[in-house]
Design the sequence.
């Protein structure tokens, strides 16, 4: 029995998979914040390169990965697929549990998959500098590395609570040559307005997005880059699911259940979307998106048009949202502290192609520790949400006496999140506000 399945570099996908080509009904378009009419490519061209705008609305099923991006992927892709043999043993379950491990990337998470693509397309468009936001820092550090790879400058607005909780993510961003500031910051009008109302604001992804979009829109040499939510971001992440399908075939099994954590939807989408195509084609497969109970956009939000940021600078997106002015508690899964959900993931949930579950922070860390003590990998707090759901499904399989094949995305390691584990071991975590 193989514990891990590793593909060769030649097996890195040559194309991204675009689920928009196979949706039974089309996505509703983003709306201009002023006119409430569908946004045009020209509206988006202020902050995005045209190639990414085309990918955002493309109906092509497969979009070719540029050779320069595939070459950059060879530094860490293909990523391994593991069979969680020790976790299965600890749970005494008939389920077979597999996980796709994206923590092997230099930045330690799946975010580098789209960061490299976005940096490449911006470079091709003649852009010199990128502005972005980051929550826990996985995205900011990934984009910093990608910008270094393609010779771009980068400024990262990092949510202040994570800036303070996760200092070594800041160090990674700086080590790769990018600038990072805590958000809200005095560097933008959006940041100054928030600080005027609340000088002690802990920040949110919605605030940081406002700052980064304002930065990009105010400079001709600068574009904005987003690490989740939008269609082109989920598109780039499908390299995860495409590789996983090959690896599951080698394992001789096909998943009954596919699981990923969700903040904006990119790592869940990256693993699940290639399998959801199979579901459209008649396969009996469940896909579960897992979020924190303290920021439950799918399980507690409303399906409506809303801004992607606090200041209302972004287009309006039809998505599950807690409201763009929602201020999430300071949980340690900083990458899941976002008020809204990818429009594509939201549509799949609305039309019941996928499920959603929410778990409290303390239970998530309990699952993460069990995983570390069995499989040896310390997971990021975000990824531990997927682990929690996988454990619950494996336990259900035991009760039912059924052999379920479970696949989840271990989207990143937790080696820069050990202060969160310190707090867990000290009994200082709760399921609301943690400083």
Sequence:
């Amino acid at each position: 029995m193989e514990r891990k399945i590793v593909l060769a570099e030649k097996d890195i996908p040559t194309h991204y998979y675009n689920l928009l080509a196979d949706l039974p009904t089309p996505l509703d378009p983003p709306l201009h914040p002023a006119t409430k009419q569908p946004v045009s490519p020209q509206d988006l061209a202020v902050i995005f390169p045209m190639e990414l705008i085309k990918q955002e609305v493309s109906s092509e099923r497969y979009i070719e990965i540029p050779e320069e991006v595939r070459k950059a992927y060879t530094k860490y892709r293909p990523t391994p697929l593991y069979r969680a043999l020790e976790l299965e043993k600890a749970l005494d379950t008939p389920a077979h549990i597999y996980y796709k491990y994206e923590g092997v990337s230099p930045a330690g998470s799946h975010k580098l998959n789209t960061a490299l693509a976005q940096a490449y397309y911006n470079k091709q468009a003649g852009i010199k500098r990128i502005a972005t936001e980051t929550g826990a820092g996985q995205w900011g550090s990934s984009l910093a590395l990608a910008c270094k790879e393609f010779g771009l400058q980068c400024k990262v607005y990092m949510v202040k609570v994570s800036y303070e909780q996760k200092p070594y993510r800041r160090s990674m961003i700086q080590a790769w040559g990018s600038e990072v500031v805590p958000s809200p910051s005095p560097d933008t009008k959006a940041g100054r307005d928030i600080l005027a109302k609340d000088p002690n604001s802990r920040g949110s992804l919605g605030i940081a997005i406002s700052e980064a979009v304002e930065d990009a829109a105010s400079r001709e040499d600068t574009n904005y880059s987003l690490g989740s939510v939008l269609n082109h971001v989920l598109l780039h992440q499908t390299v995860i699911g495409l590789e996983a399908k090959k690896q599951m075939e080698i394992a001789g099994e096909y998943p009954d259940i596919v699981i990923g954590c969700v903040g904006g939807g990119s790592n869940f989408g990256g693993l699940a979307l290639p399998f959801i195509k199979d579901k459209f084609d008649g396969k009996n497969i469940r896909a579960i998106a897992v979020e924190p109970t303290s920021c439950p956009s799918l399980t507690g939000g409303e399906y409506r048009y809303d801004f992607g940021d606090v200041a209302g600078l972004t287009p309006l997106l039809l998505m599950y949202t807690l409201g763009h002015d929602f201020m999430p508690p300071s949980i340690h899964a900083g990458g899941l502290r976002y008020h809204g959900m990818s429009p594509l993931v939201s549509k799949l949930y609305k039309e019941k192609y996928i499920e959603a579950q929410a778990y409290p922070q303390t239970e998530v860390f309990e699952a993460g520790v069990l995983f570390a003590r069995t499989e040896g990998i310390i997971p990021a707090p975000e990824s531990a949400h997927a682990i929690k759901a996988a454990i619950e499904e494996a336990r259900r399989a035991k009760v039912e006496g059924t052999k379920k094949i479970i696949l989840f995305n271990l989207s990143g390691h937790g080696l820069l999140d050990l202060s969160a584990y310190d707090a867990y071991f000290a009994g200082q975590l709760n399921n609301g506000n943690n400083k």
Remarks:
- The longest strand covers residues 153-159.
